[in-house]
Amino acid sequence: MAQGRGWEGAVLRMMRAKDFTLTVTGTQDVTDRYRRLHLSDGGLLAATGVHPTMWVRLWFDNAGRPHQRAYTLVGPDPAAGSFSLEFALHDGAASDWARAAKPGDTIDATVQGTGFETPSPAPSHVLVIGDPASLPAVNSLLGDGGNALGPAPATVWFESGADDAEGLPFLTDPDRHEIRLVPRRDGGAALVERVKAELPGLLRATPDPYVWIACDTGTTRTLAAYVRKELGVPKDRLHALGYWRAG
Q: Among 32, 49, 86, 112, which is 20 to 30 Å from 55 by CA?
């Protein structure tokens, strides 16, 4: 299964990554730009277990070349051997595959590198910066039947296009989680400006904060450096991972 995946596949084999074949069992168009696929897991959950924000690498064909992207599991059910994946649709091999996927289709998946560490002490306020690509992970972190970070309130800066947030499947708790919608402008500059204006005050009022950043790679790097270097948030109270690259 891992043959023909170029240097990425070779590195993952050296790191003893686990390979599985997933089968599409159903599809759902959540919005015209956001699609959910239901899949049988090919034994994945039984072999690996489940943790919050768990993700897998999917392998796509991109004009004859291997192309891999990571996706967070949605509603994993080890007993049933199933989960869903959600795709924020745009141009590219992954979105093209998701648009065309139908029951019975299969795709190869690799599990390597995923993990989750619960911060200690538990957060008194969770500060999340995300977008449609990281929404499944946001839901896994704050909702999705689990609440990985306990009962703390959360503030979520959510970047999206003008209409992209409407109809998205937020699983957050409106009594504890505040969603602050931020329009995507200037390659993420509007999100950076908004966070820099609002985050410092929340941090000053929070004895044990936890900051979680997952948006496009450039914006994630900018905000992570700001949070660490200018706001002084310790490394163990910050998680930052770029979820996609702006074209």
A: 32
